[in-house]
Amino acid sequence: MGAQQVQVGDGFAARYGAAPEGVWAAPGRVNLIGEHTDYNDGFVMPFALPQQAVAAVSRRDDGLLRLHSAEAGGDVVELRLDALAPGSDDAWTAYPAGVVWALREAGHPVTGADVHLSSTVPTGAGLSSSAALEVVIALALDDLYGLGLPGWRLARLCQRAENVYVGAPTGIMDQTASACCASGHALFLDSRDLSQRQIPFDLAAEGLRLLVVDTRVQHAHSGGEYGRRRAGCEKGAALLGVDALRDIPYDGLDAALARLGDDEEVVRLVRHVVTENHRVERVVDLLRSGGTRAIGPVLTEGHASLRDDFRVSCPELDLAVGTANAAGALGARMTGGGFGGSAIVLAEAADVPALTGTIERAFAEASFTRPRVFEAVPSPGARRLA
Ligand code: GAF
C-alpha cells in the first residue's frame, strides 16, 4: 500500500469519523505528440505520469457533497447537490463538484458523497492536474453507485464538467489519458470517435529517458488565449467547408491553405493542426517499427510548429527545448496547452545528468525561475486502490 493511499485514507477518517468505502487514483499525463489537435477531432498520444490524484470516498444519501483537499487545507466544503450550477464556483472544488453535476445531469442517480483527496500532480504545469481530479471522482462514484460506465464515457462526462461547470473550453485528451492510459504504453487516441490503441513505450528498455521540464510558468485554459485558438480553428474548418480540421488530409494541405487566401492567422492555425496530426501518425509508425530514437526530430518539429504557427509557446519553453537540443537531446517540445507549463525532452539515459544541469544553468543565466526537472515513466491510468 502506497504512502499517498495511506495518508488519504487516514485524512478521510480524521475528517469524517469513519473509514472510507474505497480509495481511487487517477494520474496526470504528458502528451508525447498531438497538441491542439483534440478539439479538431484529430490524433493525440499521451501517457500517464506516476503523479496522481488519490481520493477516499463514501456515499451519502442526503443530497450533500462534502469535499476536502489535503493541499487546499481549511474546513470541509459542504455543497447541496440540487444547488450545483455551472459557473457558481471558481475554487478547486469546481472540478469534483462539476463531475457530480455532470453525472446527475446525465441521469445517473448520485445522491451524495464525502470526499477527501490529495494530489501529487503539479498544478498549472500543463500536466493535467484538473483532469486527474475530475477522473478520480468520476471513477469513485461510478464504482460506488454501480454505474458501470466505460473509461471513455467517464472522460466525456469529466470534459463536460470542465467545459460547462468550470468554463474551460478544453478538448477530450486529458480526461481520456487519465482514465484510459496503461503502464508502459502511450495511448494513440482518435479524438473523433475516441477509438484508442495502446502503443508499447518502454523507454528504459531502450536505454532512453523522457524528462519533464516544468518551467514553473503557471498557465490556465479558462483564460482567453486557448479559446481564441480553438475559435480560429473552427473558423478555418468553416472556411474550408469541413466538420473539423481533421478532415484536411496532409497531402491536401497546400491546396487548403491556398483556398484560405490571405487570412494569415487562420493559415497558421490550419497548418499546425494538419501537420501535427501527420506527426502523430509518423510517431506511431516509428514506435511500431522500433524507431524510438527517430521520434526525437518529430517532437522538435512539433515544437517549432506550436511556437511559430500556433503561437502557444513562451520564452521559458523555447529555452528548455533549445537548450536541450543544443546539449545533445534526441528531441524536445512543449507539452500540453502551452502559455507556460512543461516541456518534454527525449534523451539517452546516460545524458540525463548533464542535460539537467545544462537546462538549469540556462534558466539561471536567463534569470528565469529554477525549473523542476523530473523523469516521466509511462504509468497506469485511473484505478481503484482499496
Ligand atoms: C489542454 C487541453 F485540456 C487539452 O484538451 C488539449 O487541447 C491540450 O491543451 C492541447 O493539446 O491540455
Overview of the structural elements:
With 386 residues, the protein is an alpha+beta fold. The chain has a domain at 3-199 and 380-384: 2-Layer Sandwich (Ribosomal Protein S5, domain 2), CATH 3.30.230. It is 41% helix and 20% strand. Strands 5-4-6-3-1-13 form a 6-stranded mixed sheet, sandwiched between helices. The chain has a 4-stranded antiparallel sheet with strand order 10-11-9-12. Strands 2-7-8 form a 3-stranded antiparallel sheet, sandwiched between helices. The longest helix is centred in the last third of the chain and has 25 residues, at 264-288. The radius of gyration is 21 Å and the shape is globular. The protein starts with a helix and ends with a strand. The structure holds 2-deoxy-2-fluoro-alpha-D-galactopyranose. The site of 2-deoxy-2-fluoro-alpha-D-galactopyranose has 11 residues, from helix 5.
Bound small molecules, deduplicated: 2-deoxy-2-fluoro-alpha-D-galactopyranose
Main sheet, how many strands, which sense, barrel?
A: 6 strands, mixed
Cα end-to-end separation = 9 Å
The dominant shape is globular
What is the third-level CATH name, the topology of the domain at 3-199 and 380-384? Ribosomal Protein S5, domain 2
Indicate the CATH architecture of the domain at 3-199 and 380-384.
2-Layer Sandwich
Total beta strands: 13
Descriptive terms for the model:
386 residues, alpha+beta, Ribosomal Protein S5, domain 2, six-stranded mixed β-sheet, 41% helix, 20% strand, globular, GalKase_N, Galactokinase
